[in-house]
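Retry 2 of 3 after timeout on previous attempt. Resubmitting structure tokens to design endpoint.
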């Protein structure tokens, strides 16, 4: 596929299948967005409202308006922002809640830094399109809240789970491992704090933000990435790995997010070491994590049992990760791998009948009909972002090529 055709298909998918679906999820009565739709897209208007999902929706519509300007996207972003500002923020103990009910009342007040990080990521993206200082100020406040309550001065990284009043609690939301060990720290939370801090640094260049970005990059390089060039997934407080699973989706997603963060810092030696590491990681995923038709496996469980289901977010992030690897030295293997992921997405995961994407399919491309189209973890962020990333990266390449002529 020619790059211009690849780019056009990305824009079409965002506009005509992903975000068109999410515009229909707006709750005009109670604010925010409805947070559950079944496999066929039937909405449950009484379902609880996840703050995490709203942050991802806010990011998605904000980024879409920045890259593919559309007043409907701007209006949807403002709608999501108002919900977070007016209903999801704890005015007394600070931070964003985990879960609200369908009317916007607090249902689960706990404070997890995974959730705080996504709010930062969303608010800073919203600031990029609106220059709304209040949104940036809220993001700054969340950064300071994480640093004052969760930063681990002894072991590095962050304590993850807290109650409403910022007292540490067990980390059940994201750290129940396959080995039935309740871990204290996770790769995933730290990856998304890195992602959030990188976006914060773009709009608010700050010495402490850059310092923490650098620390996180070193943590990933020296501790979280194992000797086989996979992410360790779960850790003790002092960073001993307590899990054996390999997540191919997180590995390839991490390659481009680490590169993105490395581009934000002034320490070019550290950045170069990250670029070298992520190139090797992408190659490992290319060689070990792909099915015969180019789909990315989900996980290698317990180090030996392969989960070969095609998960929507895994294919989306792999498309970006491989394209990012292609951009480094124009190795055609990576472009081919990125486009193979898109073929799998287009022919197996995209729901041509009801819109958006299926959660997952089996190895033959049959969707799991019991999986929801929308729920707290099923969002427009992975697939929408993947399409927007490919679109903008090809656009930049075209513009640079034209400028050199």
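Retry 2 succeeded. Sequence:
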């Amino acid at each position: 596929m020619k790059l211009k055709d690849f780019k056009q298909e990305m824009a079409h998918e965002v506009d005509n299948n992903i975000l068109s679906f999410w515009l229909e999820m707006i709750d005009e009565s109670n604010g925010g967005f409805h947070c559950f739709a079944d496999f066929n897209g039937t909405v449950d208007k009484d379902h609880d409202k996840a703050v995490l999902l709203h942050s991802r929706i806010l990011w998605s519509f904000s980024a879409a308006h920045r890259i593919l300007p559309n007043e409907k996207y701007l209006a949807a972003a403002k709608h999501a922002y108002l919900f977070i500002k007016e209903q999801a923020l704890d005015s007394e103990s600070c931070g964003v809640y985990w879960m609200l009910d369908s009317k916007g009342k607090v249902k689960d007040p706990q404070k997890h830094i995974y959730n705080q990080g996504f709010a930062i990521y969303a608010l800073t993206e919203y600031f990029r399109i609106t220059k709304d200082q209040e949104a940036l100020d809220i993001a700054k406040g969340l950064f300071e809240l994480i640093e004052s309550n969760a930063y681990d001065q002894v072991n590095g990284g962050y304590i993850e789970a807290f109650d409403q009043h910022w007292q540490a609690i067990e980390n059940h939301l994201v750290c129940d491992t396959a080995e039935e060990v309740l871990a204290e720290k996770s790769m995933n939370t730290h990856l998304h704090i890195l992602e959030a801090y990188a976006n914060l640094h773009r709009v608010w260049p700050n010495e402490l933000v850059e310092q923490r970005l650098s620390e996180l990059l070193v943590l990933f390089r020296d501790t979280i990435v194992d000797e086989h060039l996979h992410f360790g997934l779960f850790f003790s407080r002092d960073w001993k790995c307590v899990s054996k699973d390999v997540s191919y989706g997180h590995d390839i997603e991490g390659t481009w997010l680490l590169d993105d963060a490395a581009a934000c810092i002034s320490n070019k030696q550290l950045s170069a070491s990250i670029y070298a590491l992520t190139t090797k990681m992408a190659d490992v995923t290319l060689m070990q994590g792909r099915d015969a038709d180019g789909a990315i496996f989900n996980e290698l469980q317990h180090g030996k049992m392969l989960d070969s289901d095609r998960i929507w977010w895994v294919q989306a992030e792999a498309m970006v990760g491989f394209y990012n690897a292609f951009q480094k030295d124009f190795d055609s293997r990576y472009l081919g791998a990125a486009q193979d992921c898109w073929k799998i997405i287009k022919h197996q995961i995209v729901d041509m009948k009801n819109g958006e994407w299926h959660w997952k399919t089996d190895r033959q491309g049959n969707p799991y009909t019991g999986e929801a189209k929308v729920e707290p973890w099923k969002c427009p962020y992975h697939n929408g972002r993947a399409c927007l990333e490919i679109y903008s990266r090809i656009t930049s390449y075209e513009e640079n090529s034209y400028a050199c002529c």
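Attempt log closed. The two ends are 23 Å apart (CA to CA).
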